[in-house]
Amino acid sequence: MDSYLHRGQRRRLIDKLRAEGRYDEQVLQVMANIPRHAFLDSSFHGWAYRDEAFPIDCDQTISQPSTVAWQSTELETLPRQHVLEIGTGSGYQAAVLSLLGGRVFTIERHKPLYRKAKLTLKKLRLDRIRCYLRDGHKGLPELAPFDRILATAGATAVPPSLREQLKVGGIMVIPVGPEGREQTMLKIRRVSKTEWTEEELGGCAFVPFAEGLG
Protein backbone atom coordinates (compact mmCIF):
# COMPACT_ATOMS: atom_id res chain seq x y z
CA MET A 1 0.00 0.00 0.00
CA ASP A 2 2.75 2.45 0.92
CA SER A 3 5.34 2.24 -1.87
CA TYR A 4 8.86 3.64 -2.04
CA LEU A 5 7.55 6.26 -4.49
CA HIS A 6 4.81 7.36 -2.08
CA ARG A 7 7.25 7.59 0.83
CA GLY A 8 9.57 9.77 -1.23
CA GLN A 9 6.75 12.07 -2.29
CA ARG A 10 5.55 12.32 1.31
CA ARG A 11 9.03 13.15 2.55
CA ARG A 12 9.33 16.00 0.05
CA LEU A 13 5.92 17.35 1.08
CA ILE A 14 6.84 17.31 4.77
CA ASP A 15 10.17 18.99 4.03
CA LYS A 16 8.27 21.74 2.21
CA LEU A 17 5.89 22.23 5.15
CA ARG A 18 8.79 22.19 7.62
CA ALA A 19 10.52 24.95 5.66
CA GLU A 20 7.54 27.23 6.30
CA GLY A 21 8.46 27.22 9.99
CA ARG A 22 4.90 27.48 11.33
CA TYR A 23 3.96 23.91 12.18
CA ASP A 24 4.70 21.79 15.23
CA GLU A 25 7.48 19.30 14.55
CA GLN A 26 5.64 16.41 16.17
CA VAL A 27 2.66 17.06 13.89
CA LEU A 28 4.96 16.93 10.86
CA GLN A 29 6.57 13.71 12.05
CA VAL A 30 3.17 12.09 12.45
CA MET A 31 2.09 13.25 8.97
CA ALA A 32 5.34 11.85 7.57
CA ASN A 33 4.22 8.40 8.73
CA ILE A 34 0.64 8.45 7.42
CA PRO A 35 -0.04 7.33 3.83
CA ARG A 36 -2.35 10.14 2.70
CA HIS A 37 -2.98 8.34 -0.60
CA ALA A 38 -4.76 5.58 1.36
CA PHE A 39 -7.53 8.08 2.14
CA LEU A 40 -8.09 9.00 -1.51
CA ASP A 41 -9.60 7.23 -4.51
CA SER A 42 -6.94 5.52 -6.63
CA SER A 43 -7.35 8.12 -9.39
CA PHE A 44 -5.80 10.72 -7.06
CA HIS A 45 -2.90 8.61 -5.76
CA GLY A 46 -0.44 10.29 -8.12
CA TRP A 47 -1.26 13.71 -6.64
CA ALA A 48 -1.78 12.72 -3.01
CA TYR A 49 1.37 14.47 -1.79
CA ARG A 50 0.73 17.83 -3.36
CA ASP A 51 -0.30 20.52 -0.90
CA GLU A 52 -3.81 20.58 -2.28
CA ALA A 53 -7.34 19.67 -1.23
CA PHE A 54 -9.05 16.98 -3.29
CA PRO A 55 -12.70 15.97 -3.72
CA ILE A 56 -14.03 12.90 -1.94
CA ASP A 57 -17.53 11.43 -1.88
CA CYS A 58 -20.69 13.41 -0.99
CA ASP A 59 -19.31 16.69 -2.40
CA GLN A 60 -16.81 16.94 0.44
CA THR A 61 -13.03 17.36 0.37
CA ILE A 62 -9.89 16.10 2.06
CA SER A 63 -8.11 19.18 3.43
CA GLN A 64 -4.77 20.16 2.00
CA PRO A 65 -1.83 18.96 4.11
CA SER A 66 -0.82 22.46 5.19
CA THR A 67 -4.32 23.02 6.60
CA VAL A 68 -4.18 19.71 8.48
CA ALA A 69 -0.78 20.68 9.87
CA TRP A 70 -2.08 24.13 10.83
CA GLN A 71 -5.20 22.93 12.63
CA SER A 72 -3.32 20.10 14.33
CA THR A 73 -0.61 22.47 15.53
CA GLU A 74 -3.12 24.94 16.97
CA LEU A 75 -5.11 22.20 18.69
CA GLU A 76 -2.08 21.29 20.84
CA THR A 77 -3.21 17.69 21.38
CA LEU A 78 -1.47 15.87 24.22
CA PRO A 79 -1.28 12.10 24.79
CA ARG A 80 -4.41 10.44 26.22
CA GLN A 81 -6.56 13.53 25.79
CA HIS A 82 -10.13 13.02 24.59
CA VAL A 83 -10.49 14.71 21.20
CA LEU A 84 -13.79 15.33 19.42
CA GLU A 85 -13.55 15.83 15.66
CA ILE A 86 -16.51 17.21 13.72
CA GLY A 87 -16.39 16.09 10.10
CA THR A 88 -14.60 12.76 9.64
CA GLY A 89 -14.50 13.10 5.87
CA SER A 90 -11.82 10.74 4.56
CA GLY A 91 -10.52 10.01 8.07
CA TYR A 92 -7.08 11.54 7.44
CA GLN A 93 -7.30 14.28 10.08
CA ALA A 94 -8.57 11.77 12.64
CA ALA A 95 -5.54 9.60 11.89
CA VAL A 96 -3.19 12.53 12.56
CA LEU A 97 -4.87 13.32 15.87
CA SER A 98 -4.76 9.68 16.93
CA LEU A 99 -1.05 9.31 16.22
CA LEU A 100 -0.44 12.48 18.23
CA GLY A 101 -1.70 10.44 21.16
CA GLY A 102 -5.31 11.58 21.36
CA ARG A 103 -8.23 9.30 21.97
CA VAL A 104 -10.29 10.43 19.00
CA PHE A 105 -14.08 10.48 18.70
CA THR A 106 -15.03 11.58 15.19
CA ILE A 107 -18.47 12.49 13.81
CA GLU A 108 -19.59 12.30 10.18
CA ARG A 109 -23.06 13.19 8.85
CA HIS A 110 -22.76 11.37 5.49
CA LYS A 111 -23.20 7.60 5.73
CA PRO A 112 -20.99 6.72 2.69
CA LEU A 113 -18.10 8.76 4.13
CA TYR A 114 -18.65 7.32 7.60
CA ARG A 115 -18.48 3.76 6.28
CA LYS A 116 -15.50 4.37 4.01
CA ALA A 117 -13.44 6.23 6.62
CA LYS A 118 -14.17 3.59 9.24
CA LEU A 119 -12.92 0.87 6.86
CA THR A 120 -9.79 2.84 5.92
CA LEU A 121 -8.88 3.49 9.54
CA LYS A 122 -9.40 -0.18 10.37
CA LYS A 123 -7.09 -1.23 7.52
CA LEU A 124 -4.43 1.12 8.90
CA ARG A 125 -4.92 -0.39 12.38
CA LEU A 126 -5.79 2.93 13.98
CA ASP A 127 -7.74 1.36 16.80
CA ARG A 128 -8.04 4.36 19.13
CA ILE A 129 -10.46 6.15 16.80
CA ARG A 130 -14.21 5.78 17.38
CA CYS A 131 -16.45 6.83 14.50
CA TYR A 132 -20.05 8.04 14.79
CA LEU A 133 -22.76 8.77 12.22
CA ARG A 134 -24.27 11.86 13.84
CA ASP A 135 -25.18 15.52 13.45
CA GLY A 136 -21.98 17.37 14.31
CA HIS A 137 -23.89 20.38 15.62
CA LYS A 138 -24.97 18.27 18.58
CA GLY A 139 -21.53 16.85 19.33
CA LEU A 140 -21.37 13.82 21.63
CA PRO A 141 -22.95 14.96 24.91
CA GLU A 142 -22.88 11.46 26.37
CA LEU A 143 -19.07 11.43 26.19
CA ALA A 144 -18.41 15.08 27.06
CA PRO A 145 -16.49 16.99 28.22
CA PHE A 146 -13.60 16.87 25.73
CA ASP A 147 -10.06 18.18 26.15
CA ARG A 148 -9.96 19.19 22.50
CA ILE A 149 -12.55 19.82 19.78
CA LEU A 150 -11.69 20.25 16.10
CA ALA A 151 -14.12 21.15 13.32
CA THR A 152 -13.20 20.50 9.69
CA ALA A 153 -16.18 22.36 8.24
CA GLY A 154 -16.98 26.06 8.21
CA ALA A 155 -19.71 27.15 10.64
CA THR A 156 -21.68 30.38 10.43
CA ALA A 157 -21.38 30.52 14.24
CA VAL A 158 -19.86 28.31 16.91
CA PRO A 159 -22.52 25.76 17.92
CA PRO A 160 -23.41 26.33 21.61
CA SER A 161 -23.41 22.57 22.24
CA LEU A 162 -19.74 22.37 21.25
CA ARG A 163 -18.82 25.24 23.57
CA GLU A 164 -20.53 23.43 26.42
CA GLN A 165 -18.86 20.10 25.61
CA LEU A 166 -15.37 21.62 25.86
CA LYS A 167 -13.65 20.90 29.16
CA VAL A 168 -12.50 23.84 31.30
CA GLY A 169 -8.92 24.40 30.18
CA GLY A 170 -9.69 22.79 26.81
CA ILE A 171 -9.13 24.09 23.28
CA MET A 172 -11.42 24.18 20.25
CA VAL A 173 -10.25 25.02 16.71
CA ILE A 174 -13.07 25.82 14.30
CA PRO A 175 -13.49 27.81 11.06
CA VAL A 176 -16.31 30.37 11.32
CA GLY A 177 -17.77 32.83 8.83
CA PRO A 178 -20.77 33.80 6.67
CA GLU A 179 -21.93 31.13 4.24
CA GLY A 180 -20.33 31.46 0.82
CA ARG A 181 -17.49 33.68 2.04
CA GLU A 182 -14.01 33.18 3.45
CA GLN A 183 -14.01 31.95 7.02
CA THR A 184 -11.76 32.80 9.96
CA MET A 185 -10.04 30.05 11.91
CA LEU A 186 -10.86 30.52 15.60
CA LYS A 187 -8.97 29.10 18.56
CA ILE A 188 -11.30 28.97 21.54
CA ARG A 189 -10.20 28.24 25.10
CA ARG A 190 -12.61 27.52 27.90
CA VAL A 191 -11.21 29.32 30.93
CA SER A 192 -14.08 28.64 33.36
CA LYS A 193 -17.58 27.17 33.45
CA THR A 194 -18.97 30.41 32.07
CA GLU A 195 -16.06 31.98 30.13
CA TRP A 196 -14.38 31.30 26.81
CA THR A 197 -11.67 33.26 25.01
CA GLU A 198 -11.35 33.50 21.22
CA GLU A 199 -8.26 34.09 19.08
CA GLU A 200 -8.43 34.70 15.32
CA LEU A 201 -5.76 32.69 13.52
CA GLY A 202 -6.32 33.74 9.91
CA GLY A 203 -8.50 33.22 6.85
CA CYS A 204 -9.48 29.80 5.51
CA ALA A 205 -12.00 28.04 3.27
CA PHE A 206 -13.90 24.89 4.25
CA VAL A 207 -17.07 23.11 3.12
CA PRO A 208 -20.17 24.26 5.06
CA PHE A 209 -20.85 22.92 8.56
CA ALA A 210 -24.33 21.60 7.78
CA GLU A 211 -26.92 20.40 10.29
CA GLY A 212 -28.64 17.02 10.34
CA LEU A 213 -27.62 13.85 8.53
CA GLY A 214 -26.63 13.95 4.87
CATH topology: Rossmann fold
Radius of gyration, in angstroms, nearest whole number: 16 Å
Broad structural category: alpha/beta
Distance between the termini: 30 Å
User: What's the CATH architecture?
Assistant: 3-Layer(aba) Sandwich
Fourth CATH level, the homologous superfamily: Vaccinia Virus protein VP39
Which word captures the global form? Answer: globular
Beta-strand percent range: 25-35%
Mean pLDDT over all positions:
95
- Give me the side-by-side strand order of the main sheet: 5-4-3-6-7-8-9
Give me the number of helical elements. 6
Number of separate strands: 9
* Count of discrete structural domains: 1
Characterise this structure:
This protein is α/β, with parallel strands linked by helices and 214 residues long. It has one domain: Rossmann fold (3-Layer(aba) Sandwich), CATH 3.40.50. 29% of the residues lie in helices and 26% in strands. It has helices spanning 4-20, 25-32, 65-75, 92-99, 111-123, 160-165, and strands spanning 54-56, 60-62, 82-86, 103-108, 130-133, 146-151, 166-176, 183-190, 196-204. The strands form two sheets. Strands 5-4-3-6-7-8-9 form a seven-stranded mixed sheet. Helix 1 packs antiparallel against helix 2 (25-32). The mean pLDDT is 95.
Describe this protein with a few key phrases.
single chain, 214 residues, alpha/beta, Rossmann fold, seven-stranded mixed β-sheet, two-stranded antiparallel sheet, 6 helices, 29% helix
Give a brief description.
The chain has 214 residues and is α/β, with parallel strands linked by helices. It has helices at residues 4-20, 25-32, 65-75, 92-99, 111-123, 160-165, and strands at 54-56, 60-62, 82-86, 103-108, 130-133, 146-151, 166-176, 183-190, 196-204.
